[in-house]
Specification:
The complex is a heterodimer of chains A (265) and B (267). By secondary structure, chain A is mostly helical. Chain A has helices at 19-38, 43-60, 68-100, 107-122, 125-136, 140-164, 168-176, 181-212, 223-232, 236-263. Chain B is mostly helical and 267 residues long. Classes of the chains: A mainly alpha (265), B mainly alpha (267).
């Protein structure tokens, strides 16, 4: 009886070549060339673009903060939109996420709720903002509503998943003391999910802040309107100034939300 | 200290500093909310007829215009190409920068910092803004959209890639180095097998996000199904808008199903 040695025939190689993997890489290269030709990429387009890019950069520098009060108002409105949208988004996500958790709710509640969440998540906030601008007119309110929808989609999904991962022992222990449903939620579920919930909420605040600087492009209020107007007027130095303000605001917000997550760890 | 006094100690869940910082967080959040609510510029009159406007909107949207399906599908295919190609370019750019950002691969603080700065810049600028910039450079069209998606994704993919590299087990890498492996062999045979699952799941996750994002880029002229959406919106053909929205919804749901099933098989 002989034990078949898998490496017996031929010389042993420590790292056998992965033929299937190589085929995959070739397929990738073929796809890139095909998709590139479909989208009309070409070398001339690229080189002429670099020339435009050079002129574009020249016109961007130095950034112009001459209309700073316009930038200030826009940024302030973006901040307000982000804060309000996050608050109402969280407020609505609490019941929606709870109802979508399959371990606490019967299927006839959780599945429709999961559908609602999927619907909220599948459209980009800008598209939702367009619809709200039509429904309630131009201004910050449309932006707030659009970002509330986005927040509900994101937070409730993660919140439902967090609830589904909790340990049911603590829930059962609280239930065994004869507690009602609300007490079970507060004493059995809430301590297990609060740190993660704060994590989602601060992450969503960051995300809302990013998007609140954009909803203005479609009329939803905030700095986006000023950005888009400056862009259309070819005031690229103002565009650069606005971008610098947006990026630094987002960086500050990321530091603050990182701090908040550490506090609740 | 006797046992009795020890038992009577007042046990508390959090240290005073922790409680203070939690309180500060709640206070800060409440203040921000109150100030925002009081100062935001909202015209309440617009809210009164919002339900009417909403029903009007849906009435105009129904029934969707079937003649608009063809341009929508063309746009959708373009969007899929933009998202896929953008993701591929992003990963191609993010991997080298990610290697610079990973502290165990590149033990140079200045290079780490530079790579992190690239990631933060890429992530902080919204894809619509990237699209605006590239439209100004390359003119309207899917080229601008693809580059916008790529540049926006570098930060996300690169950051996660660098984190996966930093979490790689040093044992097998040391073994390879001890055997005299070159730098590229260490990367290819030491790191790559360890981070491969993370790598594919990052790529898939970003592709899923990019499909959503590339669907709106057409609003600023960067190609894809957003162009069809923008045309229909500007002409107030809401029945055509409905076609585009249904198509986007279908593709996003489909992409999510694909990503979940592929990821379940990969991991």
């Amino acid at each position: 009886m002989s034990v078949t040695d898998p490496a017996a025939p031929g010389p042993r190689t420590a790292f056998a070549p992965n033929r299937l993997g190589r085929l995959g890489w070739i397929a990738l290269v073929v796809y890139v060339i095909y998709a590139g030709s479909q989208l009309g990429f070409s070398a001339e387009r690229f080189s002429s673009g670099l020339e435009h890019g050079h002129r574009f950069l020249v016109r961007m520098f130095p950034p112009s903060f001459a209309r700073w009060e316009l930038i200030y108002d826009g940024i302030l409105e973006s901040l307000q939109i982000a804060v309000i949208a996050t608050f109402f988004g969280i407020l609505m996500s609490l019941p929606v996420g709870l109802m979508a958790a399959r371990n606490l709710m019967p299927a006839w509640i959780s599945w429709p709720m999961r559908g609602v969440i999927a619907l909220c998540r599948s459209f980009h906030p800008i598209i939702v903002a367009i619809l709200f601008v039509k429904a309630i007119g131009f201004g910050a309110l449309a932006g707030v509503m659009a970002l509330v929808v986005a927040s509900v989609g994101f937070i409730s999904k993660l919140f439902a998943e967090a609830i589904e991962e909790i340990s049911l022992k603590q829930v059962e222990a609280v239930r065994a003391t004869g507690a009602g449903f609300l007490s079970i939620l507060i004493m059995g579920v809430q301590p297990q999910v609060l740190p993660r919930f704060i994590g989602f909420a601060t992450y969503q605040l960051d995300s809302n802040l990013r998007n609140s600087t954009m909803v203005g492009i479609v009329g939803g209020g905030g700095i986006g309107a000023a950005l888009f107007t400056a862009y259309q007027r070819f005031d690229f130095d103002v565009v650069l100034a606005i971008l610098i303000v947006i990026v630094s605001l987002i960086m500050v917000a990321e530091i603050v939300s990182g701090w908040a997550r550490r506090v609740f760890q | 200290m006797t046992v009795a006094t020890q038992l009577e100690r007042d046990w508390q869940r959090f240290t005073p500093l922790k409680r203070l910082s939690r309180f500060a967080f709640y206070l800060f959040a409440a203040l921000a909310l109150v100030i925002s609510l009081r100062t935001i510029d909202v015209i309440p009159e617009f809210l009164y007829d919002a339900p009417d406007q909403m029903t009007d909107l849906f009435k105009r949207m129904w029934p969707p215009d079937p003649s608009y399906i063809r341009p929508t599908l063309q746009g959708l295919i373009e969007t899929l190409h933009i998202a896929t190609l953008g993701t591929i370019i992003a990963i191609g750019l993010a991997v080298p920068i990610g290697l610079l950002a990973a502290r165990n691969v590149t033990p140079n603080f200045a290079l780490n910092l530079f790579a992190k700065f690239v990631f933060v810049t890429s992530r902080s600028i919204n894809s619509l803004v990237w699209a605006l910039l590239f439209v100004a450079i390359f003119g309207p069209g899917p080229l601008a959209g693809t580059l916008a998606i790529a540049f926006r994704s570098i930060g996300f993919t690169g950051k996660l890639f660098a984190e996966a590299m930093e979490e790689a087990n040093a044992g097998s890498i040391e073994a390879l180095t001890a055997a005299g492996a070159s730098r590229s062999s260490t990367l290819l045979l030491g790191y790559w097998p360890q981070i491969r699952p993370a790598f594919w799941s990052i790529a898939l996750f970003r592709w899923d996000i990019n499909i959503r994002e590339s669907a709106v880029l057409g609003i600023v002229g960067a190609g894809g199904v957003g162009v069809a959406l923008d045309t229909a919106l500007n002409l107030l053909y809401w029945d055509q808008v409905a076609v585009v929205l249904i198509a986007i919804f279908a593709v996003v749901v489909l992409a999510e199903i694909v990503v979940t099933s592929v990821r379940a098989r990969l991991l």
